[in-house]
Amino acid sequence: MTTRRDRLRAATVKEISETARRILVEEGADAVTLRAIARAMGMTAPALYRYFGSHGELLRHLVGDIFTELTEDLREAMHGVEGGDLSGKFLAVSRRFRLWAFAHPREYALLFGTPVRGTLYEEEDSDFAEECARKFGWTFMALFMELWRKRPFPVPSDDEIDPALYAQLVRYREEDLRVELPIGVIQQFLACWIRLQGSVSLEVFGHLDFALDDAAPMFELMLSEIAGVLGLTYTPPKGEG
């Protein structure tokens, strides 16, 4: 049973996180400082240390919160599709990922852009952020595994994979994923993720503006190609042909 003191502390931590995010959205990642947060909350910067031991810890908490929100959004999109429709799930989650990124460009940049010093993987106390990032990644990995088990798609054999890449994929499977899947499936998963996340990043960060005023059709073309590789059925978004 939580005490009143615990509830007050949790409420303050939530307010600090919400204030940090508001500053992130309005002014960018560099503006998210303990001093700025304290000023916005009517506190002193030293008082914040009772809740977060460092600026880096605060940023990692913010990263974890944002990953959690994104994960919940993607799962909502997935749950809106009929259970056995794997093609629909893949398309719904991929499209929601892109839409979330455009609705939250600065949050997306914090998660997937140039790493902000003191955030993920840089400190011993980054477990919360890493765990939230892992849950986000498993949203896609779980869908990929379900597809492989129910409707296996073509993958390269071990001897068809570049040895230098093979060793890295084995390490990724054994140390990070900890799943029993052929290495060819792991390679295909990463190849699809690189295309999906890379496409969204290029668009969100404005790196396709030199050629495209509207990159949505190119994104849909990429989805149709991935669907073909995975043996899924591609259907255009509602309202299109």
Structure description:
By secondary structure, this protein is mostly helical. It folds into 2 domains: 1-53, Arc Repressor Mutant, subunit A, CATH 1.10.10; 54-230, Tetracycline Repressor, domain 2, CATH 1.10.357.10. The chain is 67% helix and 0% strand. It has helices at 4-27, 34-41, 45-48, 55-79, 86-103, 105-112, 127-150, 163-177, 183-204, 216-229. Helix 1 packs across helix 4, helix 4 (55-79) packs across helix 5 and helix 5 (86-103) packs parallel to helix 9. The longest helix has 25 residues, at 55-79. It holds the Pfam family TetR_C_33. InterPro entries: Homeodomain-like_sf, HTH-type_TetR-like_transc_reg, HTH_TetR, MT1864/Rv1816-like_C, Tet_transcr_reg_TetR-rel_C_sf. Keywords: DNA-binding, Transcription, Transcription regulation.
Short summary:
The protein has helices at residues 4-27, 34-41, 45-48, 55-79, 86-103, 105-112, 127-150, 163-177, 183-204, 216-229. The chain is mainly α.
